[in-house]
Amino acid sequence: MASGNNAGDNNKDSDFTSSDQGDKNTTQSLLKENPKEDTVSVEVLEENKNLTMEVLNLKAQLVSLKKIIPTMVDNEGNDFTYRKNFVDKIFFDIFDQYSLLWYIAMQMELNQIKGQKTELELLWQCQQEKHNEEKSKLECEKEEWQKKAAKNDELTSEVRQLRQQLVEKDNENKKKFELMLARQRNEAMKAELAKFQHIKEIAELKAEHNREIFEEKLAKARQINEVLMNERDRTCRTVIKLLKWTISKILPEFFINFHCIDLVIDDLTVGSNYRQTVQRNGSNH
Fold it and tell me: In terms of domain of life, where is this protein from (predicted)?
């Protein structure tokens, strides 16, 4: 029985060693199939390592339990433990294959997620580039608008200055224009005044000339009138004297008072003298 137990223990150790070796081979084959796994996902390798350690611990515990449990013999006297170990080996092989399939599935899912991540990163990169382009474009537009705003402010300031200058120039031009109009009106008034002065001088000259002509004509008329009046007076005196002589010769017998006739003659003489005096005074004036 002791030899049987030793044989069973040896078989168990060999099974455990072969199982451990199979796990290592499985891990190596998995690494060969996925050469980029150690660089692709450190977390998966760490998880696989932890699972391997747990499996080894469980196998060690199983070996310890097998050493404690006595060897079971079937009806034919064969060691039932070896058969059980064989079944366990098959079970662990299936479990390793399932683990491998699970790992491959997880790796495929991880690769798919990584592909999606890559696509999302590319999409994010494209969106980021687009966003950066739009941002750069907006910043350029912002700078252009700021430049335009600054230019607009400068132009507004220049327009205000020009408007102020135009207002001042317009006021100055208005004053100059009003002064020019005042000068023109003054010149026009001076011209009108000179014209009226000239007309006045001409009128005065004409009036003086007409007065001189009138005075000449009046003097001539007075002279003629004086001559005529003197002639009339002489004629009257002559006629009166002739009448007195005739009456004295024809009617000497009648008493006639000649005093009235003398008065008439005296009046004629006085009137003639008065006219001469007035004419001389008018000529002096």
Answer: Eukaryota
